[in-house]
Amino acid sequence: MARPRGPSRGESLPPPTKSSSYQSQPSSLKCIHSSKWKTLPFQFSAGSHLSTWPAYASGQAILQHSQPCCDPEKRRYGSEQASLTIAKPQYLEQMESYLREELQSLDLTKDNAQELKLQPYREIFEFFIEAFKTYKPLLSAIKNEYEITLDAQREKIRALEPLKSMFATVSDKCTQKISAFKKEENAKIKTLMKEKLYLLKLIDKMKEEKASLQAQVNKLQKNVSEEYLHYRNECDARKLLLADLNEMRSQQLEMTLHQTQDVKSEDIVKLTLALKIARRDLTKAQVELNTMKADYGDVVPRRDFESQEKKYSDLCQQTVTLQKDFDQLQKEYDTLLEVHGETVEERNRFYNELQQVLRSSTPRPDWAKCAGVVPGGVDRWRFLAEGKTSNQLVDLLLEEMGAAVLREKDIFPGLGKGDKVPVYLRYEGQVKNRKLNKKTVVNILKDLWKERISAHQQIGGQSSLPEFFLSYLQKRYGDASAFEMAYSIYESIKLYRSNHIMSLSYEILTGKVDEGVYHGLNQMLSNLLKELTAIDSSNSGALTSKQFNLALRAAFPLKSNEHIQELIEASKCKAESTEDLIFYTALFNEDAEGNTEPFVVKVWNQYVTEKQDYLRELQNELAHVIEVKVDDLKTALYAIDPTIDNLTMDNYIYLAYQVPKEELEQAVPLPVETIIEKLLAGDIRRAGPLPEEASRPTPEEGEPRDHDYY
Fold it and tell me: What DSSP state is assigned to residue 572?
């Protein structure tokens, strides 16, 4: 049978035709393989069998048309020579070249790179099957088995794809369960820690009871020893008395015998017996006397012992008293040394600051010059500048200058109707300036807050203050003039920042401060006035300094002695108040422009200072937290204010996160600075004593106290 013959040596292999896609199944590529097979030349080695070309052959020539040799030796020699001179078949070289070109043309960066890489090998295998007709059934069977196995593996991979997503879902569920278990474990750990603290306190209490009982036992042992000595002395005295009594009886008996012998003669036998008995008693008494001398020869008399013991007790007591006095003096001395050191440091710091101020300070301005530019002249300027610092005078002068500029304006430019513009200023075009004076603005604001409080009591105050402000102006002045009044009032309260009601209304209307601050301050002043009225039994409107002090402590239990003293001093700034009497009703008066008395200003300043101190403690407690969660904020609040109630806690958390109570669990954690900034804008105050002061005994009335309690 004639075999197909490949191209001769030196003849180049034509380029194979590439298939459109290497991802298709082998059955769909049969036509492509057949076309490539037709174009790809092939060859066999010499003879009717496969080429036995070895990989290690170094020869370049292939023996063709060789005849078998009859001589075994020659045949062996010829085969050895052929094996040394045989070269790599040209068909094999063409196959390898084709395979390299196909692999280089592939894009192996795709997801199915392995499928693409397998396709050229599959085509080479098809070429071998078509080339070697004798081995085609066996090679085809091998190829089919491999294809069936690959298809089965692909089916298994497709079947396992849903398991991958299922595995991810199960993994998420397991992670959630683990998180839930961790939360439960944390709750149990907290409970166990609380129980541990309780048990530790119980152990300390038991130790104290044990020490007390031990002290009682020692005292009882001392009493028993004293009683033992007392009874022993009594027993010794009794024995001495018995010995004296026996001696007296023997003397009496002898006297009786002598008298009997004198009066009448007695029986000699009877007298002998009596003498014998007397001698025996004498011997017994002598033995007892010797025993007493041996036992108590060195004993001190009880009177001297008690006297010395009393002196010793007095000296011990004096020593203990002197030691306590010495320890107290030592502590005071150490404290004075520390205070002296701090005072020296403070003196040096103040001296350095004084030197810096002396070098950099400028001459104090002549504020009397401002009387010429302020409306009202010298008299009004003196009234406005009385008791104010230079900084306050600068603010006052700026307000007066700003008021003059504001009165010269006839119109205001509208800010538009954007979302960032407050609702009461959303107007396009020019707005007329009503040129309201300070007194008129204060009266409008007072009436606004009065209506606002009434609306709170009736409908709960669902709308915000800016919306209520606009509706109030529309209701009072009409829709046409509402925005004119709104712009005029807004510009006025933005200017007069020294007036309490105007500055606070501006802060609330612009959203910098929560509305609860105004209500909280009014409630604080109302409670103070109630306490002052309650302690004024005569309804005279005046209280003594002691009564005023008691009323302040009842209204502000948490204020320190320094703050209470500051309020008392501020109350005496009123001209009607004297050293002995304080007219408290005049402390809450306001002038025509809404300016309050120094006492109310001091209450407001202390409220701001106490809020800042409270939030500073909270910030220090949260210093280790980067993103504050709801639980972290609750823990920190309980740490610095253990007596805070749940309602107050919920209000503080709402101020911090601005989410309803039912959505607190999903609240997004916020930075510490954001939390403190939001709480600073609300009505925040301490609900109870400091943690280190909660265990201190409550001082009696009239005693100095560092902090008080709500």
Answer: T
In whole angstroms, give the CA distance from residue 11 to residue 94: 10
Query: Tell me, what's the pLDDT at 582?
Result: 83
Contact status, residue 520 vs residue 683, Cβ threshold 8 Å: yes
Q: Token pair 């020659």 is at which residue?
A: 74
Distance CA 439, CA 445 (A): 10
Rounded CA gap, 511 and 354, in Å?
41
Spans of all domains in the chain = 26-146, 180-296, 514-710
| Contacts of 500 by beta carbon, 8 Å cutoff, 6+ apart | 594, 595, 596, 600, 601, 604
User: In this structure, what token pair is assigned to residue 584?
Assistant: 């408290």
Residue 396: Cβ within 10 Å count: 19
DSSP state letters, 216-251: HHHHHHHHHHHHHHHHHHHHHHHHHHHHHHHHHHHH
pLDDT at residue number 511 = 85
Signed CA dihedral, 196, 687, 507, 456: sign only = positive
Spans of the chain, pLDDT less than 70: 1-87, 260-267, 361-364, 366, 369, 371-376, 383-384, 386-388, 457-462, 574-579, 690-710
The confidence score (pLDDT) of residue 332 equals 93
Please tell me whether residue 689 adopts helix, strand or coil conformation. Answer: coil
* Euclidean distance between the first and the last CA atom of the chain, given in angstroms as a whole number: 118
pLDDT in tens, 451-488: 888 887 665 546 788 888 888 888 988 888 888 898 88
For 111-124, how does the pLDDT look when each residue is reduced to its tens digit (9 = 90+)?
777 888 888 888 88
* pTM for the model: 0.47
Which spans in 496-577 are helix H? 500-509, 516-535, 545-555, 561-571
DSSP, residue by residue, 8-53: PTTPPPPPPPPPS-TTS-GGGGHHHHHHHHHHS-----SSSS----
Q: Quick check: 13 and 97 in contact, CB under 8 A?
A: yes
Q: What is the largest CA-CA distance in the chain?
A: 192
Which pLDDT score is estimated for 334? 92
- Joined together, the tokens standing for residue 389 give 């610092």
Q: Is 415 exposed, middle or buried (0-12, 13-18, 19+ CB in 10 A)?
A: middle
What's the pLDDT at 163?
85
- What is the predicted pLDDT for the residue at 634? 87
Going along 579-698, which residue ranges are E strands?
581-582, 627-628, 670-671
In contact, 595 and 499? CB cutoff 8 Å: yes
- Residue 319, judged by CB atoms within 10 A of its CB (0-12, 13-18, 19+), counts as exposed
Tokens of 233: 């002395």
Cα separation of 12 and 41, whole Å?
A: 9
Specify which residues 582 forms β-bridges with.
543
Structure tokens at 275: 């003498």
Distance CA 684, CA 607 (A): 9
Residues 634-658: b if buried by 16+ CB within 10 A, e if exposed: bebbeebbeebeeeebebbbbbbbe
3-state secondary structure 102-144: HHHCCCCCCCCHHHHHHHHHHHHHHHHHHHCCCCHHHHHHHHH
* CA-closest candidate to residue 636, choices 661, 652, 619: 619
| 3 state DSSP class of 442 | helix
Structure tokens that stand for 325 in this block: 């006095």
The amino acid present at 640, given as its one-letter code, is I
Cross-strand bridge partners of residue 544: 581
